[in-house]
Amino acid sequence: MNLSNIHSAPSLARAVTTYLLPAYKNKNLATRNAWWLITHYMQASQATLLVSQKPIPENIYAQLYEAIIRIVHNNEPIQYVIGSIPFGAITVTVRPPLLIPRPETEMWVADLIELHRYKAHLPLKILDLCTGTGCIALALAKAFPYSSVYATDNNPHAIALSQENAQNNAIINVQWFISDLTQAVMHHGPYDLIVANPPYIPSSMWEQLDPSVRLWEDPHALLAGDDGLTIISRIITDAKDILHTHAELWIEIDETHQEAVLALCAKNRHSHTEIYTDYAGKPRVMRTIMYPKGVIGGQ
């Protein structure tokens, strides 16, 4: 691998793309990530580098070489290599083995924020379960600055990283709890909104996951029993006791879970339930409303 004889950013991006192809097997994705690495290490935008006449600093070649080795030969996710990822209006530090925020999650969180933008001045109570890096809690706390956001995770390392991300993004309206789902925050309710990106992958799918996931990310943040519904079903059941009437519950789901979560929601008085799709048109998040007893299927 020889990059040091390349003296322009576009040529460097083409070369790095070629080296990354074995990891991504998709030229567009390899190209996007090649530019992500280059712009990260050179601390400049792609637009700037496309027209820049400045020589590439010598240390950039070594950094790119190390990154390519980590990605191609070690199957390391590029997010861990770079150490951070943009998520809406915030930047989230990521480190193994904590779950890396996905574009699909960023998409539905953006949709949620846009849908409730008119509530930005209200003192809402928001609960984020399985917070991980804290990306969802922090995105909502920033979008709804008068709200009180509560975030839980049973992994102390996740809570520590979430607090670090809150400090890095200067967000102060989140309280963090090491907790098994709602256990430590029941008394703070009722809530106006509960959100979760819980473990939802069926355990039988583990060996089929990409090595960049299987070898690096915490299986406890990904797997949830034989059908992937162990945690989701608990959240749907518990939420009915701590949501305001007409409050909302949003949960990220597996593409195979649509019918199961609709049935679980109907059983637990979350009667007005919608399933939203992701970029690929796959079912990805459920949004449901809590109805009072005796109303539209309330028990």
What summary fits the major beta sheet?
Answer: 7 strands, mixed
* Structural Rg: 21 Å
CATH third-level topology of the largest domain:
Rossmann fold
Structural class, by secondary structure, is: alpha/beta
Q: Return the CATH architecture of the largest domain.
A: 3-Layer(aba) Sandwich
Unreliable spans: 294-299
What do these coordinates show?
By secondary structure, the protein is α/β, with parallel strands linked by helices. The chain folds into 2 domains: 9-74; 84-289, Vaccinia Virus protein VP39 (Rossmann fold), CATH 3.40.50. Helices cover 39% and strands 18% of the residues. It has helices spanning 9-24, 27-42, 46-51, 58-73, 78-82, 103-115, 135-143, 156-168, 211-214, 230-239, 258-267, and strands at residues 84-87, 90-93, 125-129, 148-153, 174-178, 191-196, 243-252, 272-277, 283-289. The strands form 2 sheets. The chain has a 7-stranded mixed β-sheet, with helices on both faces. A two-stranded antiparallel sheet has the order 1-2. The longest helix has 16 residues, at 9-24. The termini are far apart. Mean pLDDT is 94; it is low at 294-299.
